[in-house]
Specification:
The chain has no helices and 11 strands. The protein is mainly β and about 120 residues long. The strands form 2 sheets. Strands 2, 4, 5, 6, 9, 10 and 11 form a 7-stranded mixed sheet that branches. A 4-stranded antiparallel sheet has the order 1-3-8-7, with no helix packed on it. The termini are far apart.
Length: about 120
């Protein structure tokens, strides 16, 4: 029932931009922290952006100032605007929805299927 569907990936030249979308269904979207992760071949999956239910955001230094995460609760959709892309941004980008069922419990995660982003000349 719960489903996250990413879209917007593709091939872009260095310096270009892409906007990824994550459409959520089957969850009470407003309660979840939404995040974007990426995984390059042979590398660990890493967080690139997160936005809480209160719209607080978090970015690693590698993307800060270039990427912007946002959410539209009325549309149950999260977005990732990516600007000034470099080849190091290449990877599969995954949408994540996270909630803590209780303070003493670990968070529970839903994941999308991923969308490929390739930055190349």
């Amino acid at each position: 029932q719960a489903q996250l569907v990413e879209s917007g990936g593709g091939l872009v030249q260095p310096g270009g931009s892409l906007r990824l979308s994550c459409a959520a269904s089957g969850i009470f979207f407003r309660l979840y922290t939404m995040g974007w992760y990426r995984q390059a071949p042979g590398k660990q999956r890493e967080l690139v952006a997160a936005i809480t239910s209160s719209s607080n955001t978090n970015y690693p230094e590698s993307v800060k100032g270039r990427f912007t995460i946002s959410r539209d609760n009325a549309k149950n959709t999260a977005y990732l605007q990516m600007n000034s892309l470099t080849p190091e941004d290449t990877g599969v980008y995954y949408c994540n929805a996270r909630i803590k069922p209780a303070i003493w419990k670990p968070p529970f995660d839903y994941w999308g299927q991923g969308t490929q982003v390739t930055v190349s000349s």
